[in-house]
Amino acid sequence: MAVSVKAKIKQAIKVNWLPGLILQVFALLVVLLYFYYSPAQPTFSFIAALKLKYNTYFAIISTAIFGGLLPFVILFLKKRIVRPFVLHLLFNILLWAFMGWLIDSFYQLQALIFGTGIDVATIVKKTLLDQFVFTVFITSPLITTLYIWKESNFNPLQTITSLQVSFFREKLPATIFSTWIVWLPAVTLIYMMPPALQLPLFNLVLCFFVLLLSALNND
To answer: Residues 147, 133: contact at Cβ < 8 Å?
Structure first.
């Protein structure tokens, strides 16, 4: 492993371990509320009913909000968004709208392949396929490439140069390791939830993860 990769991974761990830990505690709290706190059941039932009723539309719109709109507003208020503001907002919303569809489709595929049980074997199988196949070969390369394009202010030539220089050597390994820090424990908790509540829990964690991803790819 090249020194630059090691340095980038160490940086990713340093940046993300504490926020990642906070996110795991938060996700765990949501799961515990679902299983052990009966007064919260009406809220969970309402969200699950919305997901079941609107299905793909719910996935696209909710993920666009939690992954695109809310992080954009936070970064804008912190003056971390450069001009043109509207173009960056559209990028965030369209990217995460698409990712909402993609990830929800993947969750449904997992349910078809492995079933909807919450036994240890089923959760482990879903988590391994999610994090070591779907994440490594599909979502991380796609998201990393698109964030490099965004951070170049949508300059195609600068994007191509960045991809040639640092994509496989720095950016992609750092994104994958950052993803594992946050999502490896989180998806285990997500797959403990009923199918209709998996994407909503994903979206709660996603909002904070996008902020981490933006900071990482802006270094």
So the answer is: no
pTM of the prediction? 0.88
Angle at 214 between CA 213 and CA 216, to 5 degrees: 65
Compute the average pLDDT of residues 157-170: 81
- Both tokens assigned to 54: 């609107």
For residue range 172-188, list pLDDT tens digits in order: 888 888 788 888 999 99
- Please report the sign of the dihedral spanned by the C-alpha atoms of residue 93, residue 96, residue 97, residue 98: positive
Q: What's the rounded Cα separation, in Å, for the pair 217 and 33?
A: 34
Chain CA centroid to CA 29, Å = 18
Within a 13 Å sphere around the CA of 189, how many CA atoms are in the beta-carbon half? Answer: 24
- Tell me the C-alpha distance between 197 and 51, whole Å: 8
Looking at mean pLDDT, say which of 4-8, 24-28, 187-191, 208-212 comes out highest. Answer: 187-191
Q: Domain locations in the chain?
A: 3-217
Q: Classify residue 40 by its DSSP letter.
A: G
